[in-house]
Amino acid sequence: MHTHAQNNGAHAAAARREALRRIISRSPVGRQEDLVRLLDRAGHHATQSSVSRDLRELGVAKQGDRYVLPDESAPVLDNFAVVAAFVRDLKAAGPCLTVIRTTAGAAQSVAIVLDRAQWPEIVGTLSGDDTIFVATQGAATQRRLIARLHQELRV
Protein backbone atom coordinates (compact mmCIF):
# COMPACT_ATOMS: atom_id res chain seq x y z
CA MET A 1 0.00 0.00 0.00
CA HIS A 2 1.39 3.40 -0.99
CA THR A 3 1.05 6.19 1.49
CA HIS A 4 0.42 9.79 0.60
CA ALA A 5 4.01 10.61 1.58
CA GLN A 6 5.39 7.93 -0.75
CA ASN A 7 3.32 9.25 -3.65
CA ASN A 8 4.47 12.81 -2.93
CA GLY A 9 8.07 11.57 -2.83
CA ALA A 10 7.67 9.88 -6.22
CA HIS A 11 6.11 13.02 -7.70
CA ALA A 12 8.86 15.19 -6.21
CA ALA A 13 11.55 12.88 -7.66
CA ALA A 14 9.92 12.96 -11.10
CA ALA A 15 9.66 16.77 -10.98
CA ARG A 16 13.28 17.02 -9.79
CA ARG A 17 14.45 14.78 -12.65
CA GLU A 18 12.59 16.90 -15.17
CA ALA A 19 14.20 20.04 -13.72
CA LEU A 20 17.58 18.30 -13.86
CA ARG A 21 16.99 17.45 -17.52
CA ARG A 22 16.21 21.12 -18.25
CA ILE A 23 19.30 22.37 -16.37
CA ILE A 24 21.65 19.96 -18.16
CA SER A 25 20.19 20.75 -21.57
CA ARG A 26 20.50 24.51 -21.06
CA SER A 27 23.83 25.00 -19.32
CA PRO A 28 27.24 23.35 -19.10
CA VAL A 29 27.40 21.85 -15.62
CA GLY A 30 30.15 19.44 -14.64
CA ARG A 31 29.81 18.92 -10.89
CA GLN A 32 27.03 17.33 -8.89
CA GLU A 33 27.29 19.97 -6.17
CA ASP A 34 26.51 22.61 -8.83
CA LEU A 35 23.47 20.61 -9.92
CA VAL A 36 22.28 20.44 -6.28
CA ARG A 37 22.60 24.23 -6.02
CA LEU A 38 20.81 24.86 -9.34
CA LEU A 39 18.01 22.46 -8.43
CA ASP A 40 17.59 24.22 -5.10
CA ARG A 41 17.32 27.57 -6.92
CA ALA A 42 14.62 26.02 -9.11
CA GLY A 43 12.70 24.94 -6.00
CA HIS A 44 13.69 21.27 -5.89
CA HIS A 45 15.39 20.00 -2.75
CA ALA A 46 18.17 17.56 -3.62
CA THR A 47 21.22 15.99 -2.07
CA GLN A 48 24.36 14.86 -3.89
CA SER A 49 23.25 11.23 -3.53
CA SER A 50 19.76 11.93 -4.93
CA VAL A 51 21.31 13.82 -7.86
CA SER A 52 23.67 10.91 -8.47
CA ARG A 53 20.70 8.50 -8.59
CA ASP A 54 18.76 10.88 -10.84
CA LEU A 55 21.68 11.19 -13.28
CA ARG A 56 21.88 7.42 -13.51
CA GLU A 57 18.10 7.05 -13.97
CA LEU A 58 18.13 9.66 -16.74
CA GLY A 59 21.07 7.99 -18.48
CA VAL A 60 23.14 11.17 -18.21
CA ALA A 61 26.80 10.78 -19.11
CA LYS A 62 29.83 12.95 -18.52
CA GLN A 63 31.38 14.26 -21.71
CA GLY A 64 34.63 16.04 -21.05
CA ASP A 65 33.92 18.33 -18.12
CA ARG A 66 30.11 18.52 -18.41
CA TYR A 67 27.04 16.36 -18.06
CA VAL A 68 25.11 15.53 -21.22
CA LEU A 69 21.69 14.00 -21.75
CA PRO A 70 21.41 10.82 -23.78
CA ASP A 71 20.87 11.53 -27.45
CA GLU A 72 18.06 9.49 -28.98
CA SER A 73 20.06 9.14 -32.18
CA ALA A 74 23.13 7.83 -30.33
CA PRO A 75 23.53 4.12 -29.68
CA VAL A 76 22.00 3.06 -26.39
CA LEU A 77 24.67 2.08 -23.91
CA ASP A 78 22.86 -0.99 -22.67
CA ASN A 79 25.14 -3.80 -23.70
CA PHE A 80 28.68 -4.77 -22.97
CA ALA A 81 29.81 -4.78 -26.61
CA VAL A 82 29.16 -1.03 -26.84
CA VAL A 83 31.17 -0.11 -23.73
CA ALA A 84 33.91 -2.77 -23.82
CA ALA A 85 36.28 -0.44 -25.70
CA PHE A 86 36.18 2.02 -22.77
CA VAL A 87 37.39 -0.52 -20.20
CA ARG A 88 41.15 -0.47 -19.58
CA ASP A 89 41.62 -2.77 -16.59
CA LEU A 90 39.88 -4.58 -13.78
CA LYS A 91 41.22 -6.05 -10.58
CA ALA A 92 40.16 -7.24 -7.16
CA ALA A 93 40.73 -4.88 -4.21
CA GLY A 94 40.08 -7.17 -1.28
CA PRO A 95 37.45 -9.93 -1.22
CA CYS A 96 34.36 -7.77 -1.85
CA LEU A 97 35.47 -4.90 -4.07
CA THR A 98 36.39 -4.99 -7.75
CA VAL A 99 37.88 -1.90 -9.37
CA ILE A 100 37.26 -1.25 -13.06
CA ARG A 101 39.37 1.42 -14.78
CA THR A 102 37.99 3.09 -17.91
CA THR A 103 39.00 5.81 -20.32
CA ALA A 104 38.43 9.35 -19.02
CA GLY A 105 34.76 10.19 -18.67
CA ALA A 106 33.48 6.68 -19.44
CA ALA A 107 33.03 5.15 -15.99
CA GLN A 108 29.41 6.22 -15.57
CA SER A 109 28.41 4.77 -18.94
CA VAL A 110 30.03 1.43 -18.10
CA ALA A 111 28.45 1.43 -14.64
CA ILE A 112 25.01 1.99 -16.17
CA VAL A 113 25.49 -1.10 -18.33
CA LEU A 114 26.52 -3.09 -15.24
CA ASP A 115 23.51 -1.84 -13.28
CA ARG A 116 21.06 -2.57 -16.07
CA ALA A 117 22.45 -6.09 -16.44
CA GLN A 118 21.21 -6.83 -12.89
CA TRP A 119 23.79 -9.55 -12.33
CA PRO A 120 23.23 -11.38 -9.05
CA GLU A 121 26.95 -11.13 -8.24
CA ILE A 122 26.75 -7.33 -8.00
CA VAL A 123 25.57 -5.76 -4.75
CA GLY A 124 26.16 -2.22 -6.04
CA THR A 125 28.35 0.07 -8.12
CA LEU A 126 29.87 3.49 -7.57
CA SER A 127 31.39 5.36 -10.50
CA GLY A 128 33.59 8.38 -10.84
CA ASP A 129 35.19 9.79 -13.97
CA ASP A 130 37.42 6.85 -14.91
CA THR A 131 36.94 4.36 -12.07
CA ILE A 132 34.10 2.07 -10.97
CA PHE A 133 33.91 0.27 -7.64
CA VAL A 134 31.80 -2.88 -7.84
CA ALA A 135 30.75 -4.43 -4.52
CA THR A 136 30.14 -8.16 -4.14
CA GLN A 137 29.10 -10.20 -1.11
CA GLY A 138 32.30 -12.19 -0.83
CA ALA A 139 35.37 -13.68 -2.46
CA ALA A 140 33.54 -16.51 -4.27
CA THR A 141 31.01 -14.09 -5.74
CA GLN A 142 33.81 -11.75 -6.71
CA ARG A 143 35.64 -14.54 -8.58
CA ARG A 144 32.46 -15.29 -10.57
CA LEU A 145 31.99 -11.59 -11.29
CA ILE A 146 35.57 -11.11 -12.50
CA ALA A 147 35.30 -14.16 -14.79
CA ARG A 148 32.05 -12.79 -16.21
CA LEU A 149 33.53 -9.32 -16.69
CA HIS A 150 36.56 -10.75 -18.48
CA GLN A 151 34.23 -12.66 -20.81
CA GLU A 152 31.85 -9.75 -21.50
CA LEU A 153 34.39 -6.95 -21.66
CA ARG A 154 37.27 -8.92 -23.20
CA VAL A 155 39.78 -7.38 -20.77
Write a concise synopsis of the structure shown.
The chain is an alpha+beta fold.
How many structural units, i.e. domains? 2
| Structure classification | alpha+beta
Poorly predicted parts? 1-5, 72-76
The backbone outline, from C-alpha atoms, is elongated
Tally of DSSP β-strands: 6
What share of residues is helical? 40-55%
What does the main sheet amount to? 4 strands, antiparallel
Taken in chain order, the helices and strands follow as HHHEEHEEHEEH
Q: Cα distance, first to last residue? A: 45 Å
CATH class identity of the largest domain: Alpha Beta
CATH architecture of the largest domain: 2-Layer Sandwich
What average pLDDT do the residues reach? 86
Largest sheet: spatial strand order: 3-4-6-5
CATH topology of the largest domain: Gyrase A, domain 2
The count of helical stretches stands at 6
Query: What is the rounded Rg?
Result: 17 Å
Please characterize this protein's 3D structure.
This protein is of the alpha+beta class and 155 residues long. The chain has 2 domains: 4-68, Arc Repressor Mutant, subunit A (Orthogonal Bundle); 80-153, Gyrase A, domain 2 (2-Layer Sandwich), CATH 3.30.1360.40. 48% of the residues lie in helices and 17% in strands. The chain is built from 6 helices and 6 strands, in the order H-H-H-E-E-H-E-E-H-E-E-H. The protein has helices at 4-26, 32-41, 48-58, 80-83, 107-117, 139-153, and strands at residues 61-63, 66-68, 87-92, 97-102, 124-127, 131-135. The strands form 2 sheets. The chain has a 4-stranded antiparallel beta sheet with strand order 3-4-6-5, covered by helices on one side. It has a two-stranded antiparallel ribbon with strand order 1-2. Strand 1 (61-63) and strand 2 form a beta hairpin. It starts with a helix and ends with a helix. The relative contact order is 0.11.
